[in-house]
Amino acid sequence: MTPLDTVHAAMETAPEDDAARLRFYERLADGELFLLLESEAEGETLTPRVFSLEDGDVVLVFDREDRLAEFVGAPAPYAALPGRVVARLLAGQGIGLGLNLGVAPSSMIVPADAVDWLAQTLGNAPSEIEARPEEVLPPKGLPEALLTALDAKLARAGGLARFAYLAAVRYEGGRHGHMLAFIDAADGAEGPLARAAAEALTFSGIEAGEMDVAFFKAHEPVAASLARAGLRFDLPEPELPGSAPPPPPGMDPTKPPKLR
C-alpha cells in the first residue's frame, strides 16, 4: 500500500466525506506521478500517450515506476512529474487521468473536470496584506486536520526556512486571528511557503478557514514572542550541494515542461 492507496481507500470507504476526498486530491497533487509518454521527452517537451475511453480522453499516470512497467508489460517512455504539474499541464484540455489502472487498489479515472478543479485550486494565490501583530498568544481551537496538513506540507519544504511558528495574534486595530510565521526564510521562498500554507488550509476541509502567513528573521523581537507562545514546526535541513542528481523535467518551477 502506497500513501496514495491509503488515502484512496479512505475516500472510497466514506464517499460522502469531503475531508477524505480533499486528502486524496492533496496527496495526488503533492506526490510524484509517472506519466506514460508516446515518445521520449525532447528537452522540456513531453508527448503523453492519450487513450480514448467512453467517458473521454485520459492520460495514464502511476504512483510507482514498477506499476507503470506492470501495466505496459514492456519498456516504455515516461516522465516523472509532481501531480500538481500534471494537473496544470492538462487543465482546460478536456483530458482526465487514468490512475494506476488495473495495477493497484487506487485504480480509478480522475475525470477532466476534477483535473481542472485541482489545477485551479492549486493556482489560487494568497492575497497580501500589511498588519502589525501587537500580541502573540498560544494557538487555540484549531482542528487536528489543519495541524496534520501543515505538518505534512512543511515536511516537504526542506531548505525554504529554518522553522515556523503557529500562534494566535492580535493586530493593531483589534483584529484577532492565527498566524503561521516562518523564521529565516530563504531568498525567494516566501511565495512557495505562502502557497503551501494556503493549500494546507484548503485541503484540510475547514469551512471559511483563515490563517495569515508572515516572515521574520530570528533576531526580530516578535520571533522571541512566537517562540514562547507558538507551536513550532521544524523544516528539514536542505540537502548538501551535489548530494542529489539534477531534477527531471517538471521539477524546476522556472522551467515547466510543455505538452505536445
TrEMBL record:
Q: Where is the SseB protein N-terminal domain?
A: 9-116
| Residue ranges of the region described as Disordered | 234-260
Q: What Pfam families does the entry give?
A: SseB
- Bias (Pro residues): 243-260
Name this protein carries in UniProt: SseB family protein
Q: What's the source species for this entry?
A: Halodurantibacterium flavum
